[in-house]
Design goal:
Blueprint: E1 10-15, H1 19-37, E2 44-50, E3 60-61, E4 64-68, E5 80-83, H2 93-101, E6 111-112, E7 117-118, E8 123-124, E9 129-130, E10 135-136, E11 141-142, E12 147-148, E13 153-154, E14 159-160, E15 165-166, E16 171-172, E17 177-178, E18 183-184, E19 189-190, E20 195-196, E21 201-202, E22 207-208, E23 216-220, E24 223-228, H3 231-244
Parallel strand pairs: 1-2, 1-5, 2-4, 6-9, 7-10, 8-11, 9-12, 10-13, 11-14, 12-15, 13-16, 14-17, 15-18, 16-19, 17-20, 18-21, 19-22, 21-23
Antiparallel strand pairs: 3-4, 23-24
Length: 257
């Protein structure tokens, strides 16, 4: 049996051991199987999960070991890393963890499931994950540490900011701008040339026909404002404004001052 073509796989650590992390681990394994079937060496060899819950240390999650806490990334400087944490309850946690780890960009892997369709004119940032059957059609720009769940469709000229999350079945019309850290719930639809603001949350099944301001929760069909986003998201929104030198943006009704 001949050896597969290409350099040997690089080790990969997945930070997190929850649902998104497990799905990413499966995408890595599916990618390795697809590469081997084509006679190519896999890009990544999954070394294990890292998680800050001590109760998980030493356990296997879907056959993948949890090696210890997230700070172990610093003891393995030649291993690729992808951060796979977050939920609608705290969708800012990925940004906080990446900031705490303070790794150089070159350490971060980009994981793309073999069934995803990514056009040659589209760009993916470091640390981003595209799960099964995602589609990026033409000139789509996806930032760093973005989570794109199965069957999401991003069409021509869409721009997705760093740390955004697109849950399963999201559909973006052409020219949509999704802000930094924004969260789109499962099955959300966004009209073409609409802007969804930074650190906002759009509920599952919503139809977004108008711009969503930063730091707000919208839901419904058509989507309407429900309330301001939770505290962690607003903290990130304010920090982004401070770091950029702009006045921090706060949603209507915010008590910040």
């Amino acid at each position: 049996m001949t050896a597969p073509d290409g350099p040997p796989p690089q080790e990969l650590l997945i930070v997190g051991a929850g649902g998104f992390a497990r799905e990413t681990a499966q995408a890595v394994r599916d990618g390795a199987a697809a590469d081997l079937a084509r006679g190519r060496a896999p890009r990544w060899r999954l070394a294990g999960h890292l998680d800050d819950d001590p109760a998980l240390h030493g356990r296997n999650v879907d056959g993948v070991p949890v090696l210890g806490g997230s700070d172990l990334v610093h003891r393995r400087p030649h291993t690729g890393v992808v951060v796979c944490v977050g939920s609608p309850r705290d969708y800012a946690v990925r940004a906080r963890l990446v900031r705490r780890l303070a790794l150089p960009e070159r350490r971060y892997a980009t994981v793309v499931h073999p069934t995803a369709a990514v056009s040659a004119s589209s760009v993916l940032g470091a640390g981003s994950v595209l799960l099964a059957h995602c589609v990026l059609t033409a000139a789509v720009r996806v930032g760093a540490h973005v989570a794109v769940m199965p069957h999401a469709v991003l069409t021509h000229d869409d721009t997705v900011g760093d740390f955004a999350t697109l849950a399963s079945g999201v559909r973006l019309g052409g020219g949509v701008r999704l802000g930094r850290g924004a969260y789109l719930g499962a099955g959300a639809l966004v009209r073409e040339y609409t802007t969804v603001g930074a650190w906002s949350l759009t509920g599952m099944g919503s139809t977004v026909l108008a711009d969503v301001p930063p730091g707000e929760v919208w839901a419904g069909s058509p989507a309407r404002r429900l309330r301001e986003a939770g505290g962690p998201a607003l903290d990130e929104l304010r920090a982004d404004g401070e770091h950029s030198g702009r006045r921090p943006q706060t949603p209507m009704g915010s008590t910040a001052g």
